[in-house]
Amino acid sequence: MWGETETVSCIACGDDVARQDAREYDKHGDRWDRDGKDFEYLCKPCFRSLSKHARDGLEAALEDAGAGEVDDEEFLSRFLTDTRGEPAGRE
């Protein structure tokens, strides 16, 4: 309806913000390809603090470490152990 403000939740901090005050987040890093996607949102302060580094392989690394399946302590331990090496393509 006209005049209503859509509200979305920030995936980083959990705050509810007006959609117009949020930024779209695409976990695959391609927010321009919109076909068949449901976007998540970040509030502007969280978006500004977001690392803009390449995310190639990030989703696989998160899944391999048990994201959403194990407790936080176990997840962090696995993730840090798996990702402590040099980033691919760097010497």
TrEMBL record:
One Pfam family from the record: DUF7562
Protein origin, superkingdom: Archaea
UniProt xrefs under InterPro entries: DUF7562
Protein name as annotated: Small CPxCG-related zinc finger protein
